[in-house]
Amino acid sequence: MPKAPAGTLYRGREGMWSWVAHRVTGIGIFFFLFAHILDTALVRVSPEAYNEVIATYKNPIVGLMEVGLVGAIVFHAFNGLRIVLVDFWSKGPRYQKQMFAAVLGLWVLLMVPFVIRHLSHVFGG
Amino acid sequence: MTSTIPAPRTPRRLRGRTNTELYAWMFMRASGVLLVVLIFGHLFVNLVTGDGINALDFAFVAGKWADPLWQVWDLLMLWLAMLHGTNGLRTVINDYAERDQLRLWLKVGLYTATTITIVLGTLVIFTFDPCPPDAAAELLPSFCPVP
């Protein structure tokens, strides 16, 4: 297949960047999911094995990574609902930019209290 | 390329015979909406309520899975999230892996990992013993019989 630079399909702005962010967060969440199912499966090995591995997660670095994970999930969730509305709501395509703004607004609205709560657990002991 | 998109107005009988891609597309939307509810609930109960992340240990998981609601919740989450993620990654592989052989083997690897993970997770939920007989009592949930 030729790869001549005959223009580009990438058009920037809300449409493209929400798509890029949806991919990146989706791939990241999926790889976390493998690790998460494997570590949870340790409950079937022994209470000691599970607690030992979970204990290695209970430090500030992993605590901050959890904020990143939840941030990725919340974005993917709200932008996913935006995609559903674009596909199934007759006015969805017309309001996709406004809905992207709503996704970002709701993300901030949920993440601020979550980060305060979670980091007080992580750093407050 | 084996999966070229047929030209517009190609008669239906000349296109692929199945609607697999349509079902996959529908599945992403249906499972996505369910996963928002399942995962937000999961994160709220495990990270926000009570002592949050500090409360997580064997006894916490055992206490949750003593309730059939959380067993079904986690089982649904396992299957839907794995299939949703696998189909998402399948799309990404189809988009970026241009060589036929590479695309094939990436997908073989993906489907293998997915199958193993779903089977393992399902077995864990269904064969889990909250009170294993040889474990230290202080690690177990409070409802386990004291030896």
Automatic annotation (TrEMBL), chain A:
Keyword Iron present in the record's keywords: the answer is yes
A GO CC term assigned to this protein in UniProt: membrane
- Give the molecular function GO annotations: electron transfer activity; metal ion binding
- Cite the entry's keywords alphabetically: Heme, Iron, Membrane, Metal-binding, Transmembrane, Transmembrane helix
Name the residues that span the membrane. 20-38, 58-78, 99-116
Q: Which SUPFAM superfamilies match?
A: Fumarate reductase respiratory complex transmembrane subunits (SSF81343)
Query: Where is this gene product found?
Result: Membrane
Required co-factor(s) are: heme
Note describing how the cofactor binds: The heme is bound between the two transmembrane subunits.
In Gene Ontology terms, what is a biological process of this protein?
tricarboxylic acid cycle
Instruction: List positions binding heme.
Output: H76
Q: What family name appears in the similarity comment? A: Belongs to the cytochrome b560 family.
**PANTHER family under this entry?**
SUCCINATE DEHYDROGENASE 2 MEMBRANE SUBUNIT SDHC, SUCCINATE DEHYDROGENASE HYDROPHOBIC MEMBRANE ANCHOR SUBUNIT
Protein name (Swiss-Prot/TrEMBL) = Succinate dehydrogenase, cytochrome b556 subunit
Q: Which organism is it from?
A: Jiangella ureilytica
UniProtKB/TrEMBL annotation, chain B:
One cellular component term from this protein's GO annotations in UniProt: membrane
In Gene Ontology terms, what is one molecular function of this protein? Answer: metal ion binding
Matching entries from Pfam families are given as:
Sdh_cyt
Protein name per the record: Succinate dehydrogenase
Transmembrane stretches in the record are 22-45, 65-83, 104-128
Q: Which CDD domains does the UniProt entry name for this protein?
A: SQR_TypeA_SdhD_like
Tell me which UniProt keywords the record has, alphabetically: Heme, Iron, Membrane, Metal-binding, Transmembrane, Transmembrane helix
Spell out the subcellular localization from the entry: Membrane
The top of its lineage is:
Bacteria, Bacillati, Actinomycetota, Actinomycetes, Jiangellales
For this protein, the record's SUPFAM superfamilies field holds: Fumarate reductase respiratory complex transmembrane subunits
Question: InterPro entries this protein is in?
Answer: SQR/QFR_C/D (IPR034804), SuccDH_FuR_B_TM-su (IPR000701)
